[in-house]
User: What shape does this take?
Amino acid sequence: MRDFFERQEEARQKTFRLIGLFILSVILIIVSVHIAISGLYYLALLYKFEESIKFSLWDAERFLGIAVITLSIILTGSLCKTRELKDGGPAIARLLGGRQVERNTKDLDEIKLLNVIEEMAIASGIPVPDAFVMDREGGINAFAAGFDIDDAVVCVTKGALSLLNRDELQGVVAHEFSHIFNRDTVINIRLMGWLHGILVIGLIGEGLLRVLRHTRGRALYLGLAGGVLYILGYIGLFFGKLIKSAISRQREFLADAAAVQYTRNPSGLSGALQKIGGLSFGSRLIHPKVSEASHMYFSDGVGGSFSSLMATHPPLFDRIKILDPRFDGSYPQVEALKLSKPEYFKPYKPRPHFDRSRIISGAAALAILESIGTPMKEHEELARSLLSNIPDAIRIATREIEGAIALIYVLLLDNDPDIRNKQLSLLKDHEDSKIYAETDTISAYLKELDPHLRLPLADLSIPTLKQLSTGQYTKLKDNIIKLVTADEKMTLFEYVLSSVLMHNLDAHILKQKRKPHLIYSVKGVARECSIVLSLLAHVGHHDNDTTLKAFQHGSRILAEPYLRMDLLDVADCTFKALNASLEKLATTSPLIKKKVMAACLECLVFDGSINVEEAELFRAIGEMLGCPVPPWLIFQSQGSI
Assistant: This one.
């Protein structure tokens, strides 16, 4: 089975193939427009002159002019649509009728959705996606959208919220998470932009036909031109939809399989699909842009297609039959569920064979690497175990702005009383009194905080902190720096927490541009790899001989001809150097990232154990590189792996 990195590389290559198909479509449209307009021009000449005329279908000057105009129209249409979608997941969700769910919502159905998304995000090791609801949609449907893991959103219909139980909703959300991991969401956005450019030709033709209704005489030629453009535009769109539909159908089967792999509960996903079949409205949507985004949805949002070639989703019966071989085609009667109280997290029931006391080995390290971007049922159980230990008051605090800010401050407070008092004094002088008071309240709850809860609590707070204005966020960053530097040094956890926060919030609030993949060889990042591995070797091992061997153990995975990597001194492995190195490594190809993550892991596990700080650092490195690490290490570092 292909791992996360191979699927990411495949998605990148698939994008290039889509660009090639788009270019081919544009060329065919230009040729067709040239032939059509040349034909109309010839008819006009015949109508004007009774004597015979000389006419050539091919005219280089005419073709060049038509090509430039047609290409300009298509590219302008595509660029305008792409610009409309440039803000990623949240913008797309709103464009398609979604409303962002308030983090402190009191609606029981919305709480259920937030809980499922949070649980799955913690289990997957990704930032918690924002949740959206399509309030006007009574059918059962959903979609995920976003350019990357850290700007992804999950949007469900009101029908899905009110008609699906928790297991069924979890199956649907797991399906959408698969699309996020496989970068299907990026392809979806690009398809929307490119196909809109082709559609513009048809829209211009439609506009010309409208003009014809109100004019006479010479407008006949305008009407003929409009009709031809209308037909050509929609023929181009037809072939574009064929490409879109073929890609979409295959991805839906893969996403179903991934959802079952994660939940180990095929009846949940199967139950959701069966309810779609039993609901009179099914999965159909009423939003005017539903056809434009038909390839993004969990199930067919448009209605039955006149041809299986144009269907964006496999037949419902086929999807259910794969999940439940005993299904006989009988769909259930569907009724709205009634919740009486919020269910924050599903009770944790450990599997009988689950064992946290295994000794770390090469096989265990390989399993950790393979779990990146491919969460399993065990990760969900670990996440639920962790989340069930969070006090209700703290869980509620993560969903309110003041509480989320205060929680981050509490996580940064030092255990040394003198340093802690200095930090609290700084907060009192530079933070709002309400947030300062909330810090004191939360601190009382977290006096004996389990170290394994630190990053998950930050993860739960990030979606709330994304609601900060630029000014509020700047103030938060300044105060974080003050707390971290209160003792004139930065601990490993302080680096990890501040890096994870700023990596997610800078991109969302400050709109930092994403850098494309530019580097396809380890040679291009040899220095950066040396810095990362040297720091890991120094952090996890305390004598010179073991440190060197750990570095060499990790660097052998990155070996390439004529490539030499040397262990650097501690003085050269600063957090500032690590940040700069990770920023550059983030621009490498997925397969290079796989090597880097594997090398980091081998370096850490060289001595046979991983402590909490090492696990958190590995998780932070993965997040900076866009490689989601499930909480496998965090939990198992309680003992051995």
Notes: Residues 4-48 form the longest helix (45 residues). Confidence is low (pLDDT under 50) at residues 345-359, 633-641. Strands lie at 99-100, 130-134, 142-145, 153-157.
